[in-house]
Amino acid sequence: MGYILEGISDAIKLLLSFDQEIYTIIALSMYVSFASTLISAFIGIPLGFILGLKDFKGKRIFARFLNTAMSLPPVVVGLVVTIFLARRGPLGQFRLLFTPAAMIIAQTLLVLPIIMGVIFNSSRDKGTEVEKMCLTLGANKLDTLLILVKEMRANILVAITSGFGRAISEVGAVMIVGGNIKNHTRVMTTFIAMNHSMGNYSTSIAMGLVLLGISFIVNAILYGRITGTGD
Amino acid sequence: MKKTKLSLGLILLLIFSLVVVGCGSKEPAQPDEPLNEENAGEEEQGTVEEPKLGGSIILSTTTSTENSGLLDFILPDFTEKTGIEVKVVAVGTGKALQMGVDGEADVLLVHAKASEEEFVAEGHGLERFDVMYNDYILVGPAEDPAKVKEQANSNIVDAFNAIHEGEHIFVSRGDDSGTHKKELELWGEAGLEPEGAWYVSAGKGMGDVLQMADEMQGYTLSDRATYLSMRDNLELVIVTEGDERLFNQYGVIAVNPEKNEQINAEGAQAFIEWLLSAETQELISQYGVEEFGEPLFIPNAK
Amino acid sequence: MEITLKNIKKSYNHKTVLNIPDFRFTKGKIYGIIGPNGAGKSTLLKTIARLEALSEGEILYNHQPFRKAILKDMTYLTQKPFLFAASVRENISYPLKFRQYKRDEINFLVERIISEFSIEHLANQLATKLSGGEAQRVALARALIFNPQILLLDEPTSNMDPNSIEIIEKIILKYNQNKDKMILFITHNVGQAKRVCDEVIYLENGIIVESGKAKTVIEAPKSENLRRFLALEYYVN
Questions:
Q1: ipTM
Q2: DSSP designation for C126
Q3: Residue C121 has pLDDT above 70, yes or no
Q4: How many CB atoms lie within 10 A of CB C124?
Q5: Maximum Cα–Cα distance for chain C, whole Å?
Q6: Looking at the complex, does the CB of residue C80 fall below 8 Å from at least one CB of chain A?
Q7: CATH superfamily of C2-82+149-236
């Protein structure tokens, strides 16, 4: 129990210390995760809708592929992104490895399938029903789209929150492509992993609690936003 | 109303899980009972020569011994002779020592002499023995923008000065490991404060840092073993070596068995005796010769 | 308005579930479609509503192939009605919004149909929270509000209590009182078919076995199968 209490008191101290480094880390975490979630949402939501509602050849195989991609191992994604961004890699000339941009790219690859998958799966089930209903009521394409978005705002919310949850909590990809560089690419999860490997358990636990708190707050806000604008 | 209930529930769940995790860490699973029974049976069968101890020990060590492949090379011999299985936890020196303090390891093989002596002095360990040494090297890009190879190929302090002055990229372990401590010690010796955009504090293991330095075309301080084992995949070259300040002594320490009941003191003792024996020391000196043309560790047990 | 089925076939996995060589539905009539489970009743309505594609053949609307404009004049009410996650009032107003009605008009028509269906007490509720019978009533109100020429109903009273059934039957009869609509009405209740429908079609295995005036078909069935079906239905009800 000692660990835990120490961790909680350390968490409070950590936040009250106004240590520039801690806030840089938290801010970077939020920036990278929000950016990748936002990019993924812009691509994944429309694409998920279109592909979920349209009948096309190989849709089943695509669905299976997408469902697999929803649980891509972050380490593998990190590895692949590294291979592409490394100096010797095809995109090496942009010198992106070990930058926040690389972390956003990697996380987007992790989050995009999640957001797209949630939308794809739910629009395949519920969406076709909504679409048919709109057809019987004489709605045109635009009407149908607006109704769909409205009907599925809960699914969109789930997609975005799970995407963000994945991004903010993932360590494997950002560790590899970001490099956990102090004041540059160090985020909450890599900070935790590093402190754990250094034997600073209470610091890890402290940051872990901060991370938990932040994801809780962000989820609560997102949830309130979207359900609030509902009816 | 519903929302507050939900969030209350979540908070309770969080606390509950933390409590469970907390308690769990205090009472590890039953310590190897089946194994002990097994070898009790063996003893009854009366194998006369060399009664094998069996069971297992947890060896907490630095990443360098594991990454270099040394442990894979020598440990089978120990298991064969004693029947003891060695569970290797390869972490930074800081964490390795912390595991000793927490009584979560039986024996430590690390390389931060001052910290180790402090560890023993504080009663966490029984006694410290020299085992072997290897050396650190400064590696950097082949183009060598700081001209270290030309001007300071055997003087690490001069080398650090040149890097600092030109603000050439230097990737630091930044993880409180033995190598990191060594590096900080050397900056101190040079009277320099490593700070700025050029100084990259990675917070990662040696292999990762070498790759980062390679990618960023920067310099880094590495142990020779890890560098040699990865040399084929790196464009980095050795720019400084052979300075006495770069030698790196490894020590072995048995964790104080009074820490808790799970510590396998007998196994730890057997491990230390074996590690310091002439035979094993010879084995250590053979490692790496075949692959790299030179030994990676030089045994020096007294 | 007239609907002509010409050699239509629908099959799933090589199994034919609908096979009608020639049939014509005309304006001003209420058609009851009866038959055992799996006879192809819903499939027939869905193909007419364009929710399912035909495997073969053609459906003509007013002697012409399908055009999108037909959709504005036709609606299909599913067996389990799907209501949008909005208030009942809003649900009922959607078809008018889709047809660019003015706001005043929408308000007027919605309030009128709400009182006609006696669902004032539901008007402000969330439509997804209604019971089966209530939802069916709301869905029918939503279907009738834009005055469609073709009304396709898939067991519209299956989850209702006798009182509500009576209300709905009256509404359906009233909807066609000027003999200017066409209603296709699947029902399990032979008595209801007799009460409401002008004509009855008995489907079995995707084939129209018998059709004609409701009274004639139900009271003097020609085929052995229909006789057996009717006996069973009377027994059940």
A1: 0.82
A2: B
A3: yes
A4: 10
A5: 56
A6: no
A7: P-loop containing nucleotide triphosphate hydrolases (3.40.50.300)
